[in-house]
């Protein structure tokens, strides 16, 4: 019973009461035990032999209110004598029957036995006389016939169901005795003095160690307690029921084999068959609840305790709640944890914006690249520093590619591409700063007295300037990639959530590499303010300023959004793509528009320094302030020249469009160049030569 209690507790079965009955109990004792069980358990496990089981059925037949569902051991098995006449009261009982195969070889052996040939068994003639009710002795008395020895043993023959177990037991005893004789006597035949007196304890130890194959093919072995090994034990689960014709029989509904129970139809069918049986004092707990057992006589009663939302119920022997691991959630039955579906990018809207901006930006960059390459030898492209334009377009393409990479499912390659967003944006701003500084230095050099060509304005110098400005951004990106490798990892922002994201989705890993790019953005804004309306005829720095202001607004809106959104990578990539697209569109867009829509303006004349220059990088001096040491006569001379040219209104193609005044100072010479609004017209000789041409009166 102790072993049964342990196994029952391990399987979640509560033993409410225990009653002991002696072998072959009286009806009064059985009824008293049933009355003590009345009102309590509904199922009784009977560890009893056949006579005790029949006494229980007989008492339940006399007292119908003492009805119990019985589960009996192999002492009942499938015996007919236990239920004979009491079939309705044994209906539904479950019994265990030791599995014993049918021995067909024994039938052949048994059929050939004869009292004349089987002389090695001294009791066989007595068995023959008892079976056929005859005698081999002629003086046996009146009414007893003489045995002929030709009677058939197959008459009324039925093989004992447990015959295979008997054969196994006999073979086990023989093997143990053989091993003990060999251990005591060695190779000598027969018995020896060492076996006497016979030691039962030694024989028991040899019996526990036997291991052999029985004639039916089964393996026979025992454990230290003398019981068959669990993996070798086989039982049939029998259920006593009636068929459609009303005949009572034992039906096999399950099998115990190799330490596991297999029920007919599976566990669901067994659950349906047992739905009519309820607990003593408590209803079954619902989904997500575990049964807290009582104490004392109420140990089979329980209270249902609900589990937390992200926990499952643990079955006995240690019932309770068990939280699911991160990234898992309970199933519908709340009995096991299942992996949560993997999310990525945090949401659909940031991912859609990043995809849209990246795709449109890449298309724009490709279109601008084709146009500028086609018109690469025209003044409008040459004046823009073709090397810086190429670097600007390549950096912008990297920004847009990073935006597309941030919108797809995180992987090693896409995470590495996302890390290129910050240094690529720094490359965009570096190209804009280098171009603006180039134009500003050119104009500042013109204002100097005397004018000189600035240094470091070649194409190679511009590329080196771009590299110097963008190198800090690449250095910070390399540091970030070393500290936080660009690989995809499964994160758990909530206990039941699994989010696939790139490693390093933190403010430090993503915003620190942006610092050099933001510094360059500040330089762009400063240069745009100080070089506005430069040069006058194209106003290129106005577009640079517009690009800087637009990206500033974008980044001012980015930081609050970055702080509250979960899709940080997609949000960062979308902002980088928008900033790069604004710089490309506003820096190179006017030139592409001139190339495609205003080809007549794609001349060298339209990209020279115009009549009015405002350069806030160098010192601006007006015409009067430029000649502090000039005399009054010299000032009048300059004024008279201005008036004279101003009265002309137009000048010939071969004439002068400006008046230059030079005067000597105490230590150096001063030159004043005054430009006037004017237009060029064809000379009189050219107009006379082509008076019939439609270009004769057209402005050149």
From TrEMBL:
Domain G-protein coupled receptors family 3 profile stretches: 350-611
TM region positions: 352-375, 387-408, 420-440, 461-481, 514-531, 543-561, 567-588
Transmembrane helix in keyword set: yes
Membrane topology: Multi-pass membrane protein
Pfam families, sorted: 7tm_3, ANF_receptor, NCD3G
Intracellular or extracellular location(s): Cell membrane
Gene Ontology CC: one annotated term: plasma membrane
GO molecular function list: G protein-coupled receptor activity
Source organism superkingdom: Eukaryota
Keyword vocabulary terms for this entry: Cell membrane, G-protein coupled receptor, Glycoprotein, Membrane, Receptor, Transducer, Transmembrane, Transmembrane helix
Predominant place of localization: membrane
InterPro entries with a match to the protein in the record: ANF_lig-bd_rcpt, GPCR_3, GPCR_3_9-Cys_dom, GPCR_3_9-Cys_sf, GPCR_3_C, GPCR_3_mtglu_rcpt, mGluR, Peripla_BP_I
Family designation: Belongs to the G-protein coupled receptor 3 family.
Protein name: Metabotropic glutamate receptor 1-like
Species of origin: Bombyx mandarina (Wild silk moth)
């Amino acid at each position: 019973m102790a072993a049964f209690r342990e196994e029952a507790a391990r399987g979640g079965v509560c033993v409410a009461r225990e009653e002991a009955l002696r072998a072959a109990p009286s009806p009064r004792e059985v009824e008293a035990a049933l009355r003590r069980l009345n009102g309590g358990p509904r199922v009784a496990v009977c560890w009893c032999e056949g006579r005790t089981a029949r006494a229980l059925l007989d008492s339940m037949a006399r007292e119908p209110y003492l009805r119990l569902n019985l589960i009996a051991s192999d002492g009942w098995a499938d015996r007919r004598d236990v239920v004979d006449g009491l079939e309705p009261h044994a209906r539904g009982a479950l019994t265990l029957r030791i599995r014993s195969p049918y021995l067909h070889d024994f039938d052949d052996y048994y059929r050939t036995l004869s009292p004349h040939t089987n002389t090695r068994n001294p009791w066989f003639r007595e068995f023959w006389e008892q079976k056929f009710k005859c005698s081999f002795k002629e003086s046996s008395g009146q009414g007893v016939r003489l045995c002929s020895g030709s009677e058939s043993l197959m008459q009324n023959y039925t093989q004992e169901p447990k015959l295979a177990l008997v054969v196994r037991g006999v073979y086990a005893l023989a093997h143990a005795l053989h091993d003990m004789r060999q251990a005591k006597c060695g190779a000598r035949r027969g018995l020896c003095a060492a076996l006497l007196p016979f030691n039962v304890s030694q024989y028991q130890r040899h019996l526990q160690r036997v291991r052999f194959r029985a004639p039916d093919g089964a393996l026979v072995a025992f454990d230290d307690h003398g019981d068959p090994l669990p993996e070798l034990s086989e039982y049939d689960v029998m259920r006593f029921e009636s068929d459609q014709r009303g005949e009572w029989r034992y039906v096999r509904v399950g099998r115990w084999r190799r330490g596991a129970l297999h029920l007919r139809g599976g566990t669901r069918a067994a659950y349906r068959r047992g739905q009519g049986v309820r607990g003593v004092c408590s209803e079954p707990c619902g989904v997500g609840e575990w049964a807290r057992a009582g104490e004392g006589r109420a140990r089979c009663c329980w209270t249902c305790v609900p589990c937390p939302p992200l926990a499952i119920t643990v079955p006995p022997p240690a019932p309770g709640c068990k939280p699911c691991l991160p990234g898992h959630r309970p199933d519908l039955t709340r009995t096991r944890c299942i992996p949560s579906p993997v999310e990525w990018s945090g949401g659909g809207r940031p991912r859609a914006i990043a995809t849209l901006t990246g795709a449109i930006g890449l298309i724009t960059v490709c279109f601008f690249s084709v146009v500028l390459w086609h018109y690469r030898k025209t003044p409008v492209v040459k004046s823009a520093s073709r090397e810086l334009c190429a670097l600007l377009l390549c950096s912008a393409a990297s920004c847009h590619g990073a935006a597309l990479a941030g919108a797809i499912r995180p992987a090693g390659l896409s995470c590495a591409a996302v890390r290129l967003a910050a240094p690529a944006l720094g490359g965009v701003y570096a190209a804009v700063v280098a171009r603006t500084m180039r134009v500003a230095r050119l104009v500042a050099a013109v204002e100097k007295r005397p004018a000189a060509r600035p240094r470091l304005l070649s194409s190679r110098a511009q590329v080196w300037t771009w590299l110097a400005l963008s190198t800090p951004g690449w250095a910070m990106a390399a540091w970030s990639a070393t500290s936080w490798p660009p690989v995809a990892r499964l994160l758990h922002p909530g206990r039941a959530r699994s989010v696939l994201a790139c490693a390093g989705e933190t403010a430090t890993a993503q915003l620190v590499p942006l610092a050099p790019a933001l510094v360059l953005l500040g330089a762009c804004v400063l240069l745009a303010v100080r070089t506005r309306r430069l040069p006058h005829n194209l106003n290129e720095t106005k577009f640079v300023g517009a690009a800087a202001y637009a990206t500033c607004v974008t980044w001012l809106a980015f930081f609050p959004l970055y702080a509250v959104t979960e899709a940080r990578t997609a949000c960062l990539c979308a902002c980088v793509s928008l900033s790069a697209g604004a710089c490309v569109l506003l820096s190179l867009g006017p030139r592409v528009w001139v190339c495609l829509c205003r080809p007549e303006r794609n001349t060298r004349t339209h990209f020279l320094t115009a009549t009015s220059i405002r350069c806030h990088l160098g010192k601006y001096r007006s015409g009067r302030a430029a000649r502090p040491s000039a005399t009054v006569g010299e000032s009048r001379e300059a004024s008279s020249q201005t008036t004279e040219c101003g009265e002309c209104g137009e000048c010939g193609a071969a004439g002068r469009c400006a008046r230059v005044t030079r005067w000597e100072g105490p230590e150096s010479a001063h030159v004043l160049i005054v430009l006037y609004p004017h237009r060029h017209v064809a000379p009189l000789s050219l107009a006379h030569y082509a008076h019939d041409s439609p270009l004769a009166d057209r402005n050149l």
